[in-house]
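Pilot study result, target chain (368 residues):
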Amino acid sequence: MKLTASREQILQPLQGVIGVVERKQTMPVLANVLITAQVGEPGRLTLTGTDLEVELVAAGEAAVSQAGEITVPGRKLLEIIRALPDRTQITLTLDGDKLKVSAGRSRFVLSTLPAGDFPQVDEVSAEQAVVVAQGELRRLIEKTHFSMAQQDVRYYLNGTLLESADKTLRAVATDGHRLAIAETTLGEAVRVAKQVIVPRKGILELQRLLGEEGDVSLSIGTNHIRATIGEVRFTSKLIDGKFPEYSRVIPANPTRIVTADRNMLRQALSRTAILSNEKYRGVRLSLSAGVLAVQAHNPEQEEAEDSVEVSYQGDEVEIGFNVTYLVEAIAAIDGENVEIGLTDSNSSCLIRSPGLGDVRYVVMPMRL
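Predicted structure:
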């Protein structure tokens, strides 16, 4: 294998796949990237990284004089390419079981492992194909990803549900204490409604890859989901499990509707949270006509209290929440104001932008 390309022609695809390449692996080959060179006009350079759950493939052009494939340590190659001057011409040459990297007066020799040792993800037999704007899919992930569980024994919560039905693509995430839901409208209706759970690592990697311009093609199979974003192909295994019936926990018609300045409420909650219990993070919301008071205390007998003016004319009510869940939900809402729907002191609250339902958050109450 021998090829020549500019620093940028190698760096861009390498940065595209490096997110799934870990330094320490139980399988040494997983710390490597697979380099594939194909002769042609122009020649083709393809880089592949995987952690057995997520696979990333990125391609670019190169002057390939000898085709071949080999795996090399991904992080080391990235650091070498980054350290070279802009627009440097780089030559990669496979010599026995070593890869030689030449650029100007610089020479590097990297160890390799055979390409045959590199794990290949099964081909995705697409049961559904969806085309969505990159910016919209990124927005769905940004509005929901923080509500995913982390290492929960209920493995199906350690990811995000992607649901397509009619002309709607919906992302839903929950850790059992809160729920985030965001949706967007597709250009054309899907033939069959489908639900898949994408694991946490896949969701965060997809978020990193998505930009604001152009479309992304999603191919959804039984065991995998694939996204094609320009020259980068993302493939992730799916979580085999049944996602909770999320629609049941969304309050249908909250009887108490509170509207507040989003930033003022978020800042009041953040200030009060400083003296909340570090483990449980509980705060008490006391709602009365025109005022929402926020209180917190901790085992050291310290207390905090703050209040904000709100639009509310109903009965007085007190309810406890995990302040982190409230702050993250309110921060993710767009617009100047936030609407909080409450039923009573023992029921979940519904958080959204006033009059909008495309992004919603449900937070369970807690006893204080």
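One observation from the pilot: The helical segments are 7-17, 74-83, 134-144, 200-209, 262-273, 323-332. A full batch analysis is planned for the follow-on phase.
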